Amino acid sequence: MYGNGCYTTIFSFGDSLADTGNIKQIASISVDALRWPYGETFFHQPTGRASNGRLLIDFLVFVLPDAENLGLPLIPPFLHDKEDDKVVEFGQGVNYAVVAATALDTSFHEARGTVNAVANVPLGVQLTWFKKSLPFICSNASDCRNLVGRSLILMGEIGGTDYNNPIVDNKRIDDVPLVIDTIISAINELINMGAQTLVVPRTFPIGCSGMILTSHFYEKEEENDNRTGCLIKFNRLTEYHNELLQTKLNHLRELHPSVVIIYADYYNAAMQIIHHNPNSSQSEIDVFQQCFWLEPYRLLLSHEPLWESHL
């Protein structure tokens, strides 16, 4: 920890779970996060966030030293001017995450017949953006290394889109180790640049995704979890990803004992919401549908935002 027990800066990488507006500048097709009702509760307009309000990265800003100041700016997206690709005012951090981003390069997926129609910004491109922005923040290599070391690095969630798109296309998934190795390589690169504290999330339960449930509505009944309605085989895929990620992170901790690597359990956090809602009298499957805005086999699921929790 730095400063008053806090971090001075936050740098964020990932996909729609972290993107605070980069997608506005680079979307190759119309993206639902740019339309109403996204952004309606907090920003009162769409911002590019896949939420009706704020994302986790917006709440993490309160670990910064002057969080008591209610006017503290949120971590801005890297892109703000589509014409010349200028960066925004950096303030206390930069967000490089992009909706629908993959861990693996776009060329890998395209070679296998899967095209990302939303954006072409895999993790490697986000790292390039990060390196590009550093000269705007720090004056020399030593200063930059110190800055990165004082910062909280949020690594994702990333990897979900690497599986979601092929699953929707009914393609075989056999690239989990490659996805993990790509994430670990990026973490290693950041550590070599001076990173001392990184938050690395587990992937959410893909088998509970409305998009996946809709695209695979024809699956046999025994493929569904009786309590949640989630597709078991795709959640097992996610569990394999998460187990392999954790194993690789443990190895990284051995190689870099002075670096703090926090394993954020997004998977079980989501499953707890799906399994348990004490304020609802509906069945658990109905609760799941309520949380994920799933109408059975509905084809326009992406038009519904991920709602901000008001806790």
**SSE order, as H and E?**
EHHEHHHEHHEHHEHH
Radius of gyration: 19 Å
> What fraction strand?
5-15%
| Spatial sequence of strands, sheet with the most strands | 2-1-3-4-5
Number of strands: 5
Provide a descriptive summary of the structure in words:
- The chain is α/β, with parallel strands linked by helices.
- The protein has eleven helices and five strands.
- It has helices at 23-26, 56-60, 106-111, 123-137, 141-149, 160-168, 176-192, 210-215, 232-255, 266-275, 284-292, and strands at residues 9-13, 93-95, 151-155, 197-201, 260-264.
- It has a five-stranded parallel sheet with strand order 2-1-3-4-5.
- Helix 7 (176-192) packs parallel to helix 9.
- Residues 1-5, 82-88 and 278-307 have low confidence and may be disordered.
List the helices and strands and how they pair.
Layout: E1 9-13, H1 23-26, H2 56-60, E2 93-95, H3 106-111, H4 123-137, H5 141-149, E3 151-155, H6 160-168, H7 176-192, E4 197-201, H8 210-215, H9 232-255, E5 260-264, H10 266-275, H11 284-292
Parallel strand pairs: 1-2, 1-3, 3-4, 4-5
Helix pairs in contact: 7-9
In short, what is this structure?
This protein has eleven helices and five strands; from the N terminus they run βααβαααβααβααβαα. The protein has helices at residues 23-26, 56-60, 106-111, 123-137, 141-149, 160-168, 176-192, 210-215, 232-255, 266-275, 284-292, and strands at 9-13, 93-95, 151-155, 197-201, 260-264. Residues 1-5, 82-88 and 278-307 have low confidence and may be disordered.
